[in-house]
Amino acid sequence: MLEIKMRQAGNYVIMDLCGRIDVDSANLVEAAGQCIREGYPDILCNLEDVQAIDYMGISVVVIAYKEVVNHSGRMKFVNIPAHLRDIFSVSGIDRVIEIYATIDSALNSFKEDRVIEDIKKMHLRRRFKRLPIELKIELKSKKDNLSECLKVEILNLSAVGAFIFGCGQFKLGDEVILRMKLAPNPELMELEARVVWVPDKAVQRHEYPGIGVEFSNLSVQNQQRVIEFIERNISSILSD
Question: If you write DSSP's letter for every residue of 52-92 in order, what string do you get?
Fold first, then answer.
């Protein structure tokens, strides 16, 4: 029989499972439903004390998982014992669910998920907006340290990229690194980007020499800083 002990960790529920997960483990689905009804759709299942799981038990886990996902929640798993990993692998469920080694890493992943979701929503709202600004930066090639432009300016900035004026030595597809400070934060940022647009000197004389870049591999922290900088300065422009 599957025993379930539930405890809260902030906005999340940790279910400590003990015993067997099998055809008689419908209480896992019921417990997930209870969490959802009480306003806690993010659930971490701790399998550290689970002795066995069979294919019917895997079906129970899938049903509980779908119940949570269908209510805009997330169910993750932690501390899966070595003797259970084979059935998770053979059944293919380990390619669907998220599995973590520690409770702390799993709980942190919940927080990161929400931050990323918020950023994506802001991208959708602002994907056509760019902040006109004159911002001095350092620009260099990601692969060739000798290819470097120190005196360039960002003329407009968005949450996903920028137009940089003052350097015409890069071509489409080149990977570059932008080094900048976004006031009032004094910390120097290094952002990776890829060149996605190069103006034609004959047609776009006012943009030459320059490049349009798209940010890549942004950390959650740096992405937040860029968005907050844009939000703050757009608000200032609108209030003037």
Answer: EE-HHHHHHHHHHHHHHHHTT-EEEEE---HHHHHHHHHHT
